[in-house]
C-alpha cells in the first residue's frame, strides 16, 4: 500500500470509530442502552435482505452524486451544485419519460433517458463552469446560486403546467422507461426499492476512475494539481476546468435515474432532495477511488436507513450531525497522518 | 391599501436585509483575514435556534441575543481550529459545520420543544410597542428594532475598523499575504482566529435577527441566506460596507416579490429567482474587474 493509501485508510478507520462512538454517546444521552439500539440499527439494515435492499436503494443516488463531486474534486473543484443538477435532471426525466411513445422498446428508452439525465445535469453546471473557467468566480458560490435557481424554477414550472393538475408531480412515465427493481433477480429483496440503477452507478464509478488513469481525462486531474505546468504543456487549462465541471454535473444528473426511473416512475417536488449534499460527504470519505466511493455510499446509505430504523429511540436527524463529524474526523486525521508520514520520510 | 405599498415594501426590505447583511459583514471579516467561510449558512441556522432557546429560557431578548452571538462565536472557533490548527480545507470544514447545524438544530428542536417544524413563539425585542398591521406600522416596528441599528452600526464600524485601525491593517495583511505578514511579526494565526470568531459572532447576530423577525425558530429557516450573503461578499469585492449594501439590494428584490404577491398576479413568483440570477449576471459582467479581486491569501496557510 502506498503511503498515501495508508494515510487514507487510517483516516477512514478513525472516521468510522468516531462515528460509532459519537452515535453511542448520543444514544446514551437519550437515556437508552447503546448496545440495544446499535443492534436494532444493524437489524434494520444489514441484518435482513429487505434491509440490505433499502441500504442499496438509499446508497444509489448518493453514489452517483459522490462520483460527481469526486470527479470535480480531481480538478480541485467543489461541486456543491449536485443538488440542483439532480433536481433539474429529475424534472427532465419525468417530463421526457412521460412523453415517450407508449410502444417504445426498452433498448431505445433507457439510453435515451440516461442521455437526457446527463444533458440536463450537465447543462445546469454550465454557468458555474463558465464563471469558474473564464471569470475566476469561485464555483462554490455559483453552484449554490444555481441550486437556488433550480429550486424556484422547479416549483414554478410544475405549477405552470408540467405537473398534474392540483399536484406537484408529473404524469407517470411510460412503462418501458422504468428500471426494474432488484427483486426481479432475487425474490428475497421483495418489498425493497433497490433497483438496477445501482448497477449503472457502480459502473460509472469504475469507468470514471479508469478514465482518469488511462485516458486524456487525466488532464482534468492535472489542471487541478498544477495549472501552471499544464498550461506550459499546452493543455488548455480553462477549458479543461470547465469540462470537469460540466462532466460532474452530467454524472450528478444520473442520480435521477435511481429515483425517477427506478423508484417512483414520475417526478414530484422534493424527490431525491438531499442526495447532492450527501454526495459531498461520500466524496470526502471515498475520495479518489471507485471502491472507496462505493463503500462510502453504502456507509451513508446505512446511516440513512439506520436512522429510520432507530427513529423511535433517537431522532434520525442525528445522522446528519454524525455525517458532519465523520467528514471532519477523516479530513483532520488524514492531514495529521500525512504530515507524520512526511516527517518520517524526512527523518 | 395602495398608499401603504411603499412603506410595506420598505419595511420588508429592511427586515430581510438585517440578517443577510449581518451575515455578509461577518463573512467579509473572516475572508478578509484569509479564511474562507462557507459556514455562514450553518451559523445563521444555529444561532437562530440559540436565540429562541435563550429567549425562551431566560425570558429576555437580551438573553437570546447573547446566546445567538455566543453560538456564532463557537461555530467560528471550531471553524478556525479545524482550518488553522487541523489544517483541513476551509470548504470541507464549512460544509461539515453546515451539516452539523442543519441536523443539530432539528435534533434539539425535537429534544427541547417536541416538534419537527418550529419552536414556541418568542417576542424578540419590543422596546417600543407599535400596534397595527398596516405597512406604515410595519416600517415603524423595523425602525425601532435595535437589531436594525446594530446592523447599520456594525457595517460602519467593521468597514472603518478594517480601513483605519492597526487591527484592521493586521487583518488585511493576514489575508493578502500571510507569509510576508508573518515575517513582519504580525501574529497571523491569532489575527485570523480573532477575525473568524468575531465575524462568526456577527453572523450569529444575523441569526438572532432572523429568528426574532419570524418570532420563532423554524427547521431550515436560514433557507440559503448564508450563501446569498457570501455572494454579496464576493460582489462587493470583500468590502463589508458594500456587502451590506448589496444585501439591501437583494432584500429589496425579494421584498418586491412578496409585496407584489400579496396583490396577486403571476409575475411575482419569478421575482424569487431575481436575486440569484442577478448575482450570477453581475459576476458574469464584472468578475474580471479590479474591484472584484479576492484577498490574495484567501485559503492560504502562513506556515507551510
Task: Estimate the strand proportion of chain A.
Answer: under 5%
* Backbone structural class of chain A: mainly alpha
Helix content of chain A: over 70%
N-C termini distance of chain B: 63 Å
N-to-C SSE string of chain B, H for helix and E for strand: HHHHHHHHHHHHH
Unreliable spans of chain A: none
Overall structural domain count of chain B: 1
Number of helices of chain A: 14
Write the layout of secondary structure elements.
The complex is a heterodimer of chains A (347) and B (304).
Chain A: H1 3-29, H2 34-44, H3 49-74, H4 82-99, H5 106-135, H6 139-162, H7 197-214, H8 218-225, H9 227-232, H10 237-253, H11 255-264, H12 275-286, H13 290-309, H14 318-346
Helix pairs in contact in A: 1-2, 1-14, 2-13, 3-7, 3-10, 3-11, 3-12, 3-13, 4-5, 4-6, 4-10, 4-11, 4-12, 5-6, 5-10, 7-8, 7-13, 8-10, 12-13
Chain B: H1 5-32, H2 40-58, H3 61-85, H4 90-113, H5 135-143, H6 146-164, H7 166-176, H8 178-183, H9 188-214, H10 225-235, H11 240-262, H12 267-271, H13 274-286
Provide an overview of this structure.
The complex is a heterodimer of chains A (347) and B (304). With 347 residues, chain A is mostly helical. Chain A has 14 helices and no strands. Chain A has a domain of 232 residues. The longest helix of chain A is centred in the middle third of the chain and has 30 residues. The radius of gyration of chain A is 21 Å and the shape is globular. Chain B has 304 residues and is mainly alpha-helical. Chain B has a single domain, classed as ABC transporter involved in vitamin B12 uptake, BtuC. The model of chain B has no long low-confidence stretch (mean pLDDT 88). The interface between A and B is large, with 44 and 42 residues.
